Amino acid sequence: MANLYVIALDVTLQSPLHITDMIKGRFDAKRAELSRNPNDKFGVECSLTRTTSLAQFTEERRGALVAPIVPVIPSSTIAGKLRRSATDLIAHSLVKRSLTISPNAYNVMTTGMATTNLDSSSKTPEVLQVARNDAFLSLFGGTSFALDSHCVIADGLPLLESTKGMLMSPVLTSVQPFGAIEQMTDVIAIIKKNDVLDQRGAYIERVIGLEQLINYSEAANADAASSKARKVAAAAGEEVESKKTSIRTFNAFEAVKAGVSFGIRVGVTSFDPSQLGLMLLALQNFLRDGQVGGKGAKGYGRFALSGSALYEVDPTTRTLTAVSSIFEDKISGYGFKEAQVIDDAVIAAQDYVDAVEPALIEAFTNTDAKAIKQSQKKGWGVAAEEDATA
Amino acid sequence: MKAVRISFAMRTQMAIPPGAKHLDAVLSWAAVRKAEFEGDYDPWSKQHDIGLAKHVSGEDWCFMASILDFDWLGPKGNVSYIKRQRVEPYADAWMDGLLNARPAIDPTRGLTKAGAYNVPTRFASCVYGYAMVEDETLLNSVLPWVTHIGKLHHRDFGAVAGFQVIDCEEATQLWSRRNLPASSGLATMHASAFGSLRSPYWVAENHKEIQCFVG
After folding, report:
1. Is the pTM of this model over 0.95?
2. Among the listed residues B142, B127, B130, the one whose alpha carbon sits nearest the alpha carbon of residue B51
3. Contact status, residue B90 vs residue B101, Cβ threshold 8 Å
4. Which pLDDT tens digit goes with each residue over A148-190?
5. ipTM score above 0.90
6. A interface mutation test: which of B36, B111, B117, B160 has the most A CBs within 10 A?
7. Rg for chain A, CA atoms, rounded
8. Chain A: residue whose CA lies nearest to B74
9. Which terminus of chain B has fewer Cβ atoms in its 10 Å neighbourhood, N or C?
10. Which chain B residues have a beta carbon less than 8 Å from that of A318?
11. Residue A380 pLDDT exceeds 70
12. Which residue has the higher pLDDT, A191 or A27?
């Protein structure tokens, strides 16, 4: 018999967050106006952050149904981070034991999705049994067998009165009093400058040379003149070739403000304590990394944990029973709280990570059902554990 | 046999199903998950243990369960996600001595192919169907396992907040709004088509001539 758990993390942004949406908006800097309609003609193109609609609060406005939207941390972003964290734990263990895997196996571990040779027809009970007993494969699934994952990773939703009913488990901290999305986001403009043309720094003339600088300046002026002429021609309805002539640009993107809190929720079906433990270790790495979304190098998307909880789920009634909070604070490096379930799970996961066999990963990568079946007879994992002890 | 209406209240928006979704398909998925949870060696063999009555016609049979109806709420949306490979982890793995061959990343083909995916989504306040129940205890044990409906359940799309089973006399007629055996005399608003009569509906090898509900 397995166990069902819900892992709840409430996190608070410490710097703005931007996760690029497929759809672009427009931003007018003079009016400080953001439009989410890419067909609007004013201003400059603006990268929007990812959002989700709250259909439960749909209203009719000017004859059209409009649902409010809120920013999200997409589940695919969180899932990708957790999968990579778990892969890193296994990778470190393999390197430590001087074991290697193929690039294809590494690819399947990090992305889970084999784009070729999908072979769900070989999913025999034996293969599924082996996958269920392996913490990584059971949790994250995928491979050429298109295995089910036994965790549910939800979108990270802002902790609002309007979203709390969409979360897998209750809000741990408190709901925030934001209403419209504009209260949670800002538009950030980036102006790229031309240091040479603007002669920023006394060294420029000495480094480039006066003659070169004059030539460059004349060429830039000519480009600007031709660009202006093309704009005039385009305005008159003539067909003109689009050509970028200046490296000076004005870009804008939408970002969620620092201070906004999100609820991250993960459901785990754990056939063995190591499966809950591997997810906890992956989440610990995720928290220690403390960054999500784009422009991380510029300090965007930093977050800190504001609350955590582990719940046990009753399979019949689906009611949640709080087991314990999970993580200590940031200063302690998000160490685990003392609780029997957490201790057992983490120890089992560390044992699993220390004993992972590359041959099993390769067998699932290469759709080698025969090798997978043999693994049960050989007792992979157990043997490696004994070797490590010896 | 008992005629019932089974309804599910939803917690999150769901991936819009590309075609008709049968109530018994959702229950079969739940039965497999329940069997897997209970440690069954072959959970797929339990996919038809859902407690619903069967309609037999000649050699064919199907469950007496209708396709699902959706009370859609709000505008349609979509969820997009991308699959891509970053070079740095591969470079690190190679330099750490983890990989037994030099990695190559080609975003246009093979295992490292990049892709962008888009799934239309919408919120349904209620999802419901009609069925004839043969084993109420078995059905009640399976229903809590219908935790999600539709694709992307592992991303918590189509999450079920709760379910309700109520007696419904109309269900004695309404259950037949589904794929029926070709020889069934119950077809009313149906057309001849190729499809499945029971789960797994998606396996093409199971497709045969049936009567598909088109009402």
Report:
1. no
2. B142
3. no
4. 899 999 999 999 999 999 999 999 999 999 988 999 999 998 8
5. yes
6. B111
7. 27
8. A55
9. C
10. 144, 147
11. no
12. A27
